[in-house]
C-alpha cells in the first residue's frame, strides 16, 4: 500500500480527505503544520480537533512547529491582500513545502493537502503550488469534489469537532470581526 502524507489544516477538513484517500487505496499519515493560525488559542483548538480526528479515524498524526513569527515575516507587506490573494498563495507554499519535506523524511510515496476541501479556496492554485514544489510526488486532488465537502461536514458533526469560522490567519480573522 502506498503512503501519502496529508497536510491537515483542521480536523473537519481531514475527515473527508482521509476517507477519500483510503477509498483510493492509500495509507494516510496526517501532518498538522499551520503557523498561520492566529491567535495561539485558536491554533490549540484546531490542533486538538486534528488529534481527535486522527483518533476517531485511526491514522498517525505528526506535528510541525508553530512558528507564527516565520509566517508573519513571510507575509509582511501582504496584510492588505484580499482573501485568496498573494498572501494566501505564500501561505500555501510555506505549508506545502514543509509537507513535502516531512513526506520525504518519513519515506512517503506522495503528499497532498486538505486545503482543497474548502469551497472558499481555489484548488487549482493550491494544486499548481504543490506540483511546483513536489512535481511527481504531489497528489493534485480537489477534495471538495465527489461530495467531499459535505462528507467532511457530516463526519465532523458525528465526531463533535470544533468548528472554526475563519480561515485561520490574523487577517482573515480581522475580516470576520468587521
Explain this structure:
Strand 1, helix 1 and strand 2 form a beta-alpha-beta unit. It contains seven helices and four strands, in the order βαβαβααβααα. The mean pLDDT is 92. The protein has one domain (3-177): 3-Layer(aba) Sandwich (Rossmann fold), CATH 3.40.50. With 178 residues, the protein is an alpha/beta fold. The termini are far apart. The chain has a four-stranded parallel β-sheet, sandwiched between helices. The longest helix is centred in the middle third of the chain and has 20 residues, at 86-105. The chain has helices at residues 11-23, 40-57, 68-75, 86-105, 123-134, 148-158, 170-177; strands at residues 3-8, 27-32, 60-63, 110-113. It is globular, with a radius of gyration of 15 Å.
In short:
The protein has helices at residues 11-23, 40-57, 68-75, 86-105, 123-134, 148-158, 170-177, and strands spanning 3-8, 27-32, 60-63, 110-113. It has 178 residues and is an alpha/beta fold.
Amino acid at each position: 500500500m502506498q503512503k501519502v502524507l496529508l497536510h491537515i489544516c483542521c480536523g473537519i477538513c481531514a475527515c473527508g480527505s482521509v476517507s477519500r484517500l483510503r477509498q483510493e487505496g492509500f495509507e494516510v499519515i496526517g501532518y498538522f503544520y499551520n503557523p498561520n493560525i492566529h491567535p495561539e488559542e485558536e491554533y490549540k483548538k484546531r490542533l486538538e480537533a486534528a488529534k481527535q480526528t486522527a483518533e476517531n479515524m485511526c491514522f498517525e498524526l505528526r506535528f510541525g512547529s508553530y512558528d507564527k513569527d516565520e509566517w508573519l515575516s513571510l507575509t509582511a507587506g501582504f496584510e492588505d491582500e484580499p482573501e485568496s490573494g498573494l498572501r494566501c498563495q505564500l501561505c500555501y507554499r510555506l505549508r506545502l513545502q514543509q509537507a513535502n519535506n516531512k513526506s520525504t523524511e518519513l519515506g512517503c510515496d506522495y503528499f497532498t493537502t486538505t486545503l482543497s476541501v474548502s469551497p472558499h479556496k481555489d484548488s487549482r492554485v493550491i494544486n499548481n503550488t504543490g506540483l511546483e514544489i513536489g512535481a511527481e510526488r504531489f497528489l493534485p486532488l480537489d477534495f471538495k469534489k465527489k461530495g467531499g465537502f459535505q462528507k467532511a461536514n457530516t463526519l465532523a458533526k458525528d465526531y463533535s469537532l470544533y468548528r472554526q469560522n475563519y480561515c485561520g490567519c490574523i487577517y482573515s480573522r480581522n475580516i470576520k470581526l468587521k
